[in-house]
Write a structure and sequence with these properties.
The chain contains ten helices and 13 strands. By secondary structure, the protein is an alpha/beta fold. It has two domains: 136 residues, Rossmann fold; 191 residues, Dihydrodipicolinate Reductase, domain 2. The strands form two sheets. Strands 3-4-2-1-5-6-7 form a seven-stranded mixed beta sheet, with helices on both faces. α1 packs across α10.
Length: 341
């Protein structure tokens, strides 16, 4: 990419992730010259008191754009499938938050704290990983570099916003229905049914579609994306993904087995020095990461660091991050920051 003092940027998508991309670009003072916002239909949107004019997306809209941030949609084909090649043809570098290009061997999959150097190998498209993968590798890569990780077992507790605006509205409506009239037939009576089960006052282990081996595609993302980002295809990874009644902020219970023995103190010391990580680990004083505290922040928070009582090479971590920011918008903008360096 040609070095400039400012860059023409396009944000594609005006949903929860697209709005967060606009917010993060401004908050991180990204050197934007012209900013264009595209979606299926044109309209005006307001973000933190500033009005943005959203234009209908078209191939011609990418003329003169340097960086195109595609907000993406998990679970369905994103706009990048149709328009990424058009943007690249017109000279833009595409950073795609959707799942469509992540496992393409010609497309780098990047978390800047882990594999920023992979940005250099792009051929016009760079993929942003899944939200739950991003926070996990930010926390685990520093330990892997020092002690080697052989195995990961992870259970995610993922917020409603990870499924989009409709899921957040479903949670809000269900809570309201319960407050007004009790617990009967809440999911049946709700107008918003973005998710397959009632979410208010409930959890369910079903994110994505069930595919190979009765795991969901969301669970396989944690396996395959981690292998690619960390350049560690031999790590054995098994995952269970769970939807929980939280607005924003994914939590993960992560068990890892290392090649060399590692104490909780050594793990804490390493993580405290690692980029993008904040350690909150004083459970006796009720101090540990929680999604309500991570909301609106860009860091990955780690706590409950403890050794397996029966294995000196076994370690537990509790990992929390804002899925709309570090898990999506912030990571995409950080990739753009790597690109212009």
């Amino acid at each position: 990419m040609q070095k400039k003092s400012k860059y023409n940027v396009a944000v594609i998508g005006a949903g929860v992730v697209g709005i967060e991309m606009l917010r993060v670009l401004k908050q991180r003072n990204f050197p934007v010259d012209e900013l264009r916002v595209f979606a299926r239909t044109g309209r005006d949107i307001s973000v933190d008191g500033e009005t943005y004019s959203v234009k209908p997306i078209s191939p011609e809209g990418f003329e003169g754009i340097d960086i195109a941030l595609f907000a993406g949609t998990e679970g369905e084909k994103g706009a990048a499938v149709t328009y990424a090649a058009e943007a690249v043809k017109r000279g833009a570098v595409v950073i795609d938050n959707g799942a469509d290009f992540r496992m393409d061997p010609k497309v780098p999959l990047v978390v800047p704290e882990v594999n920023a150097g992979d940005v250099k190998s792009h051929k016009g498209i760079i993929a942003n990983p899944n939200c739950s993968t991003i926070q996990m590798v930010v926390a685990l890569n520093p330990i892997h570099k020092k002690f080697g990780i052989k195995r990961i077992i992870v259970t995610t507790l993922q917020a409603s916003s990870g499924a989009g605006k409709g899921a957040v509205e479903q949670l809000r409506e269900e809570v309201s229905l319960i407050a007004r009239g009790g617990f009967d037939n809440i999911h049946v009576n709700a107008q918003n049914k973005s998710m397959p089960q009632q979410l208010a006052y409930n959890v369910f282990p079903h994110i994505g579609s069930f595919v190979e081996g009765d795991y969901t595609n969301e669970e396989w993302k944690l396996v395959k994306e981690t292998h690619k980002i960390m350049h560690a295809p031999k790590i054995k990874i098994s995952a269970t993904t769970v939807r929980v009644p939280v607005r924003t902020g994914h939590s993960e219970s992560v068990y890892l087995e290392t090649e060399k023995p590692v104490t909780p103190k050594k793990a804490r010391d390493i993580l405290k020095k690692s980029p993008g990580v904040i350690v909150i680990d004083d459970p006796k004083n009720n101090l540990y990461p929680m999604p309500k505290d991570a909301e609106g922040k860009d860091e990955t928070f780690v706590g409950r660091i403890r050794q397996d009582a029966f294995d000196k090479k076994g370690l537990w971590l509790w990992v929390v991050a804002d899925n709309l920011r570090k898990g999506a918008a912030t990571n995409a903008v950080q990739i753009a920051e790597c690109l212009i360096k």
